[in-house]
């Protein structure tokens, strides 16, 4: 409270105690465990890609098993995330969805490349790549629904991005706006200002 000052006869404001700095946000153990599996999946996918590139060269010391082995290991990790997600682990669901979303983007890019060729075989390859892109995007969106309903901010953010980036006629700007709003408010609650501002910018992009 105020302190009386004999020199002035007025109540001098008491020195305010220093406010402790807000504690930096710490991810939960489940988030960290799921993120570890996600990073392992990414590393295995890189190994498989490098092996597939090598196999195309005549002097490559690798064979097909060097490409398939990491893909099989990645599949085990994907299923582990799916199992945890089905048991209610929203972090596992988010990271499994993140893997699927990234694979969807890669298949879309692959389809774009094949589309540039006139050869019918390339056109068929483009069609298959786009089909896989849609399939992986649907996996991602389905994995995120429960988390978005529970206001899991990372799930809300990715769900919004997937809705906004969908092919013309398939995107849902209202769903994207609502999910971005979920992410913006929940990130703000957690003190993650940069992510909250990014989600708010996403809200503006939806045009709502």
Residue runs with pLDDT of under 50 for 5 or more positions? 1-15
Helical residue percent band: over 70%
Question: Main beta sheet: strand number and arrangement?
Answer: 2 strands, antiparallel
Shape: globular
Biggest sheet, strands in spatial order? Answer: 1-2
Which band does the percent of strand residues land in?
under 5%
Mean pLDDT: 87
The SS-based structural class is mainly alpha
Task: Write down the Rg.
Answer: 24 Å
Reading the helices and strands in chain order gives EEHHHHHHH
CA distance, first residue to last residue: 48 Å
Q: How many beta strands in the DSSP annotation?
A: 2
Please report the number of helical segments: 7
Structure notes:
The protein is mostly helical and 208 residues long. It has helices spanning 29-55, 64-86, 90-115, 120-149, 153-165, 173-189, 193-205, and strands spanning 3-4, 11-12. Strand 1 (3-4) and strand 2 form a beta hairpin. It is globular, with a radius of gyration of 24 Å. Residues 1-15 have low confidence and may be disordered.
């Amino acid at each position: 409270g105020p302190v009386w000052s004999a020199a002035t006869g007025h109540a001098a404001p008491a020195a305010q105690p220093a406010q402790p700095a807000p504690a930096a946000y710490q991810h939960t153990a489940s988030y960290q465990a799921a993120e570890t599996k996600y990073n392992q999946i990414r590393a295995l996918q890189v190994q498989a890609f490098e092996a597939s590139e090598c196999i195309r060269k005549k002097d490559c010391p690798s064979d097909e098993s060097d490409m398939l082995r990491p893909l099989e290991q990645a599949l085990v990790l994907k299923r582990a995330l799916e199992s945890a997600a089905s048991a209610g682990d929203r972090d596992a669901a988010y990271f499994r969805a993140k893997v699927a979303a990234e694979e969807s983007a890669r298949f879309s890019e692959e389809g774009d490349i094949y589309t540039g060729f006139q050869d019918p075989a390339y056109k068929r390859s483009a069609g298959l790549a786009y089909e896989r892109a849609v399939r992986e995007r649907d996996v991602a969106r389905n994995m995120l629904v429960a988390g978005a309903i529970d206001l899991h901010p990372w799930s809300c953010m990715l769900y919004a991005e997937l809705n906004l980036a969908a092919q013309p006629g398939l995107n849902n700007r209202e769903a994207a706006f609502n999910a971005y709003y979920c992410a913006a408010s929940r990130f703000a609650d957690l003190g993650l200002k940069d992510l909250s501002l990014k989600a708010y910018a996403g809200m503006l992009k939806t045009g709502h």
